[in-house]
Design a protein that fits this description.
about 70% helix; two-stranded antiparallel ribbon; mainly alpha; 37 helices
C-alpha cells in the first residue's frame, strides 16, 4: 500500500494493463453534496442546504480541505449566505494553506509559470508557453499533474488542462498583488494565441480583460455573423456592450450588429429603429442591411405584408456575397408567405427555406424553420414525422464539441410538447425545462412558449400549483416585451383554458369578457383568414367553446363548434378538429344525447387512428374517458 501525493516512479501503465493496480485518486475522494451536507452538520452543528451548499461544493470541487477551511471560516458567522457568496481562493485560510503546503517548495520559475498561466480558464502547452514566456511547458504540465498540483486534464490525450477553481483564484490574487502591470500583456498574449488558433471567443474575452478595446472591437466585428448564425446572441451583445461608446462609434458595422442583437433579445423596436436611422447612410453599412432589420422587426410585430415588402427591397440591394442577410430576407419573405397558406402549403414553403438555410450554413434559421415544420406535422397528426424532424434538427444544433447551441432550446421545447401529447410526461417536462434554459442564453422571450408547454405538462401530472406558476411566468415574460399584444393574448388564452379545466369559471368568464375581437367574422373565408391575428382569434374561439361547454351553455357551444370545425379542416389542423369534436361529444353528453355522442366519438377515433394523439383525449376528463371504455368504442380505440 502506497500513500503519496505525487505519482511514484513505478511502471504504473504496465501495472494498470495487467490489472495489478488499484488506485484511489482525487476524483474518488471528492465529497458529494450529500457528504458535504453531513460534514457541515457535524463541523458547524447546523444545516447548510440548497444554493449555499451547492455553491460550496462547486467552488471546492468536493475537496475536503477546502470544505474544512470553509467550515472554519463560517464558525460564529450568522450570515452564511453572504460568506458563501464571497468564498474564493483569496480567502485567508485557503491562502495560508496553499502558500504553506503547495507553493513553498516550488522553484521560482515554477511559481512564475503558475502565476502567469492562472489567467487562463483552460490551457495547453503551446498556450502556456505563449503566455508565460517559459519554454518546456509540456514537461511542466506533466510535472504538475504527476505532483497532483490542483491541475486536471480535460481530455484523454493530456492536451488541455485547467486548475482547481480555488487554486486559480489564489494564484490570480497573488498575481494582482505581486505583478499587476503584467496583467495586460498576459491577456494580450493569450488573445493573440487564441486568435492565431482560430478560437475567437477566447481571443475576445482576453482582449476585453486586457483591456484593449480596439483589438476586441475588431475581433467581435469579424465574429459577429458567426455568433448570430449559431444563436449565441447573449454573448455577442455582452461583448458589444462591454466596449466604450466611442469605440463602438468607430466601428459602424459593429454598432449595427449590436442593434440586430438587441432586436432579437429585447424587443425595443422603436428605440432600435431610432438608432438605425442614425446609422443609415454611413458608408461602412452595406446597402440592404437596414431594410433587412426592418423586415425582421415587422415579422416580430406580425406585420407580414410589411415584412415581405422590406425583405424584397433588401434583396434588391444586398450583394450576392452578403450570404447571411440574404438568407434572413428570404426567410422573412417565406415566413410572410407561409402564414397565408394552409398547413400543407406552408410546409412546402418551409421546406424551401430549410434548404436555403442549410446551403448557407445558417444554423439558427435552419433550426427555427425545422421547428415550424415539426409543429405543422404535429398539427396534422403525423407525430412520428414531427419527432423525426425535431431530432434531426437537434443534431444540427450542436457545436463542434457536441454541445447544444442556444437555438436548440426551440427544439427541446417543441419536443417536450410532442412528448406531452404522447403522454410521456416526465420526458416532456425534462425536455421543456432544458429548452427554457437554453433559450435564456439567446432570446429569453422564446422561453415564453416553453412555460406554456410546461404548464400543460404540470397540469397533466396533477401538479396544479406548478402549472399555475408556469403560466404566470409565461405571462410575465409576454408583458416584459410589450411591443406586441399577440403574445399576451396567447398566454392569457392558455391560462383561461387551464382555469376552465380546473373549474375556475369566474376567472375564465372574466377573460372571455375581456376579448375585444370575439369570434372572427371571416372564419375560414379566404386567404386573409390565415393572418396571425385572425388565427389567434380562432384559437381563442375554441377556448370560448370549451368555456360554454363547462358552463352548461351547450347550445351556444355547439353552434360555435359547428362554425369552427370546417374552418380548421380547411387549414389542415387535425389536432384542433379532434379537440372540437371531443368538445362536441361533451356538449351532446351534457344535453343527454348519449347515442349521438357515441357516434361523434367513433368518427373522432377514426380521425385520430395512427396519429399517436393521446393527451387530446385524456385531457377532456372523466366523461370522455368513460365513453372510451364502452365496449363498442374501446374496440375502435
Amino acid at each position: 500500500v502506497l500513500l503519496t501525493r505525487a505519482d511514484p516512479p513505478l511502471a504504473l501503465g504496465k501495472m494498470r494493463a495487467n490489472k495489478e493496480l488499484s488506485e484511489i485518486r482525487s476524483q474518488d475522494l471528492k465529497f458529494s453534496a450529500k457528504e458535504a451536507q453531513e460534514f457541515f452538520s457535524i463541523a458547524l452543528q447546523k444545516e447548510i442546504t440548497g444554493k449555499d451548499l451547492q455553491r460550496l461544493v462547486e467552488r471546492t470541487e468536493g475537496w475536503i480541505s477546502g470544505l474544512q477551511m470553509a467550515a472554519i471560516s463560517m464558525q460564529g458567522k450568522r450570515e452564511v449566505s453572504e460568506f458563501v457568496g464571497s468564498f474564493s481562493g483569496s480567502h485567508r485560510y485557503i491562502l495560508d494553506y496553499l502558500m504553506e503546503e503547495v507553493l513553498a517548495g516550488q522553484s521560482r520559475e515554477m511559481r512564475q509559470f503558475l502565476y502567469r498561466t492562472s489567467i487562463l480558464d483552460q490551457f495547453c502547452a503551446p498556450l502556456c508557453s505563449a503566455v508565460s514566456g517559459i519554454p518546456g511547458a509540456q514537461e511542466i504540465l506533466l510535472e504538475l499533474e504527476n505532483s497532483n498540483m490542483f491541475i486536471f486534464p480535460l481530455d484523454d490525450v493530456r492536451y488541455w488542462y485547467r486548475y482547481h477553481r480555488l487554486f486559480a483564484d489564489f494564484l490570480q490574487a497573488r498575481l494582482h498583488e505581486k505583478s499587476p502591470a503584467q496583467l495586460r500583456e498576459l491577456h494580450l498574449a493569450a488573445s493573440r494565441w487564441y486568435e492565431s488558433s482560430g478560437l475567437i471567443t477566447q481571443a475576445v474575452e482576453h482582449a476585453l480583460s486586457a483591456p484593449d478595446y480596439q483589438r476586441a472591437a475588431g475581433l467581435v466585428q469579424g465574429a459577429a455573423e458567426s455568433k448570430l448564425v449559431r444563436s449565441e446572441i447573449a454573448t455577442l451583445l455582452r461583448w458589444i456592450e462591454s466596449l466604450p461608446l466611442e469605440t463602438r462609434r468607430a466601428f459602424p458595422r459593429l454598432a449595427f450588429y449590436g442593434l440586430w442583437a438587441q432586436m432579437l433579445v429585447r424587443y425595443q423596436f422603436e428605440a432600435i429603429l431610432l438608432e438605425l436611422g442614425k446609422l443609415e447612410g454611413i458608408q461602412d453599412i452595406p446597402p440592404g442591411w437596414a431594410d433587412t432589420l426592418r423586415a425582421f422587426i415587422e415579422i416580430s410585430l406580425t406585420n407580414l405584408e410589411a415584412a415581405g415588402k422590406y425583405a424584397q427591397q433588401a434583396l434588391d440591394s444586398l450583394s450576392r456575397e452578403d450570404v447571411y442577410f440574404r438568407a434572413i430576407c428570404l426567410w422573412c419573405a417565406g415566413l410572410s408567405q407561409a402564414f397565408n397558406q394552409n398547413l400543407e402549403d406552408s410546409y412546402r414553403v418551409f421546406e424551401e427555406l430549410l434548404e436555403v438555410s442549410r446551403s448557407q450554413n445558417n444554423i439558427m434559421f435552419a433550426v427555427m424553420t425545422a421547428s415550424h415544420m415539426a409543429r405543422i406535422r404535429l398539427h396534422q397528426g403525423n407525430l412520428k414525422a414531427s419527432e423525426k424532424i425535431y431530432l434531426q434538427a437537434l443534431e444540427a444544433a450542436k457545436d463542434r464539441r457536441g454541445n447544444l447551441l442556444p437555438i436548440a432550446g426551440e427544439i427541446k421545447m417543441g419536443l417536450g410538447d410532442l412528448y406531452r401529447e404522447l403522454d410521456e410526461l416526465d420526458k416532456a417536462a425534462e425536455n421543456i425545462q432544458q429548452g427554457i434554459e437554453l433559450c435564456k442564453q439567446w432570446r429569453d422571450a422564446a422561453a415564453m412558449e416553453g412555460y406554456i408547454y410546461l404548464g400543460r405538462v404540470k397540469e397533466a401530472q396533477g401538479e396544479l400549483e406548478s402549472a399555475g406558476d408556469a403560466f404566470d411566468k409565461a405571462l410575465q415574460m409576454a408583458r416584459k416585451y410589450d411591443a406586441i399584444d399577440v403574445d399576451d393574448r396567447m398566454v392569457q388564452m392558455w391560462q383561461a383554458r387551464f382555469w376552465i379545466s380546473q373549474g375556475w369559471l369566474d376567472k375564465a368568464l372574466a377573460w372571455a369578457e375581456s376579448l375585444q375581437a370575439g369570434v372572427p367574422e371571416d372564419l375560414g373565408a379566404g386567404p386573409e383568414s390565415n393572418r396571425l391575428d385572425t388565427m389567434l382569434g380562432m384559437r381563442e374561439s375554441v377556448v370560448l367553446a370549451r368555456l360554454f361547454t363547462a358552463n352548461g351553455d351547450y347550445e351556444r357551444a355547439s353552434q360555435l363548434i359547428e362554425r369552427l370545425v370546417p374552418a380548421f379542416e380547411s387549414l389542415g389542423n387535425l389536432d384542433t378538429v379532434i379537440e372540437l369534436m371531443l368538445l362536441k361529444v361533451k356538449t351532446l353528453l351534457g344535453l343527454g344525447d348519449e347515442e349521438q355522442a357515441e357516434g361523434v366519438m367513433k368518427r373522432t377515433i377514426s380521425l385520430a387512428r395512427n396519429t399517436g394523439f393521446r393527451r387530446i383525449f385524456l385531457d377532456e376528463g372523466q366523461p370522455v374517458r368513460d365513453l372510451l371504455k364502452k365496449p363498442g368504442i374501446q374496440r375502435l380505440a
